[in-house]
Request: fold
Amino acid sequence: MTLMCGVSISPSSSRIRTSVEGGAASQRASLPKKSLPEFRKLSNCVNPNGVGPPPARAAVEQLQAYSAPLEGRRQLLRLDFNENTIGPSPLVAQALRGFSSEEIAVYPEYDGLREAVVRNLTECGCRPGLQSDQVGLFNGVDAAIHAVFQAYGDPGDRLLTTAPTFGYYSPCARMQGMTIEAIPYEGEAFAFPLAAVEEALALRSPRLLLICNPNNPTGTRLKPGQIIALAASAPGTLVVVDELYEAFTGDSVLPNADFTATPNLLVFRSLAKTAGLAGLRIGFAIGHADVVDRVNRVTGPYDVNSVAVAAAFAALADQSYVDAYVAEVLRAREWTLEALRDAGVRHHCDGGNYLLVWPKRPVAEVDDELRAAGILVRSMAGKPLIDGCFRVSIGTTSQMQRFMEAFLSLER
Reply:
């Protein structure tokens, strides 16, 4: 996951006002109006003869591509992207080993997968009554995020979100020509700016409200009841809750959500962070059947591949493996927090399977030296409110012991 960069906070306001590049947010960052000839001129400016490819849409011409440092990570201790650090259930490996060449040659089939998701969610405490048509299947939650913006975002519409947060929300809004209002987290504990969000909902009627809960990277948690209340207070706003990290601290709205009473509430879930399927790309959107239908309308018929489908069935059937992994991460988190406190290292930890650490030395140097030691973390250099720290994912206890040994040797 890429986080926000290039954002500044106006001294005269608590809102973030400048545009965010490569995964960021801005307030009132509506795209400047340019004519098609102007964009053709822009597109052709690299060629002195005026010959070049046709320009893309205006919003795309002004967009910096979302990217993340994904290459060269294998064989290293991956504490940078909040993935499962030990791999999926043996049932997943067994399902993939049994995958036939005929299954590879046939277009994917999804029969039973939505029902398996509903069954798993219900067993894990989701409010009873969820139906299969209330579950959308996507090529990872990134694809679900993109589809929501395609389905619900028009030029000039407003996205309301927080800052810093997951960096893909804002590029998706910018693709649609939307205005972005990102409200900063508050204080040293990065508290959720509830009053400011309530005010923005009441006064500006945003098209979308996107809440990452727990938030990546700050770990900020908002109580499920408060999220449901926000949705109830703004029926014309689609309130999207990104719950990729809820399993680690139990912050889900699903045990209490009534999608008939709040049809404008949509929840994202994934099998990447807990079940270890990040490389296969499969995610889910759960909500009112009509909302799921509209989001599905802007996706392709076979976006989720057959290998991911087979792996998802196996992962959903082995919840005990996921529960055991989550329990180990929580044990490792407590060990890491105690070690950081004992060493006098500034840090911040709330929800999710990650925490923020402020090293004594420049964060870029620490990032480079940890990588040289075979350990990946995620630098937050230049990010609003958290500049100078890095985010470290929580793996197993032995993995965190290795991290702390390497990190503390750099602090001396």
